[in-house]
Amino acid sequence: EIGAVAGTADINGLETCRRVFHDYLRARLKDISQDVSFFGVESIEELPYIDHIGPHSGLYERRLYYHSTRFKFVLTAMYYGQITRAAERVFPEVYTYCNFSPHPPMFGQQMNHSDWFTLTRELGANTAWGEGWASGGGWGFVGHEVVSYYGAWVECAARRHNQPSGFYIVGTMGGADKKMFSLVARGIDQIYLYAWGPRYIGAEGSNFWSENKNIYYEIARGTHALGPADEIIAEGNRRQSRVALLYNRSHEIWNGAYGGLQSDRLLTFMALTHAHIPTDIILEEDLSDESLAQYKVLYLQGFNLGRKHLAAVRRWVEKGGTLIGVAGTAIRDTYNNPTDEAEKLFGAKQQLAGTSKGGWHPQALPKHEPIDSLKLKSSDLTPDLTLDVIGIKANLQPTTGKSVGTFSDGTCGAALNTIGQGKTLLLGITPGHIYKGKSGGSSRYSLDLRPLIALPAERTLGEQDVTYSEPQTEICRFDHKTGIAITLSNFAHFQEPKERDVELTVKTDRKITRVTSSLKGSLEWSREGGSVKVKLKSPQPVDVVVLRAGP
Fold it and tell me: How much helix, strand and coil, in percent to the nearest 5, is found in the chain?
């Protein structure tokens, strides 16, 4: 394994880098059970590293380009891995990390020039870290809640080696309390409120909040709300995700930012969060029998996906998984060759039919003009819904699947298929773009279209262990021997500042003796069968409901 080289190799110098590159290629050939003829040569030493190819490249060149592109990030991780190992020898508990600013790749761009996940997954750093500059609305009509999505990236980066994770919360950007809650919900427990000040000692005054009284209030509110539940959150078991959403890096290698799939993924994640469904971000290497076993629902996107990964997904579906794909999903493999594996999986052929015009930043989506309309029929995984289409469009031709939606010309726009014990749904649209769409007003989203994304997960998962009457609120459950804590972060606080009567339902057979709000004291509650129902006011904007358990 090439990762084993990271701790021992001196990778300074061109010759050493070339040797490591060839070792990397040998390891990849072993992974796919191929010999060097896979690259069209007789010796691995004949192969150069290539960083670009033309539009008419051949098969061997495309294969080499793909692995070269992945290698540059592994090489970077190996370089920093040497520094990390040296630091650990002197300071065994040292943290090494890189805090990436997420704005460029998160809003319609790509991560292809700086693969954050590889740095930790290949042990270049021993800690996954994020940096939260999200403001109330300048981050693309998703505001502070984008930190939840970014936190899921950090969690993904740390998952392979169970590494620690942390986050800077930039206080001057506001929403420190909501950001704390989003990070706690992702299991991120090292949170640095960056940076107190005073302003004149820093390079940039915007980084320091010592003279901003509003920040003190937000920080106090967040920490005070978490305080009564500290033991439960720190020592208890966090609610685990049974839904996964793929971050497809192969799509970016071949297509860059085409189609705005970064924004579609972000907004799909937000729709699931608004539906109170915890969702993990996973990578292509996580599409394996072992990794997929913990999930019941998987959302795929991206034009390129490896054949072995699709094979693992198919086995997972056959065992009972629910798979949702969007326009163009897996129509080509990782070497940009057309493939019919997705057709067999979804039971439908796909023909890309273009995209709506405009920028892919979420703020730009309301300016897109619809390129069609889609009428969905009620089925196991689709609601009865008619919607305007923006984003990417693909016409579908069902084979083993059945049509559950049509575009305005009668062409199939959604196909449902059954494989073994599981189901697949292919949408000829990018639903995240549509969820944001032309929404305006208080919600910033088309909340009536949320079932377009969330219904397949809701139907597959059945009754959740926590249900809450308000959308646009992120919730997380923690279970401990002393009780249960439910964190609530109201993303719609700025748009709907008035308190509303809401209801929280928690499934538990444990004996509950008292229910309290961290910020509002004792709450009205009742036992109904295997659940506890709690009445409270909508948090402004955060709160923690604590159910104390007794003997």
Answer: 40, 25, 40
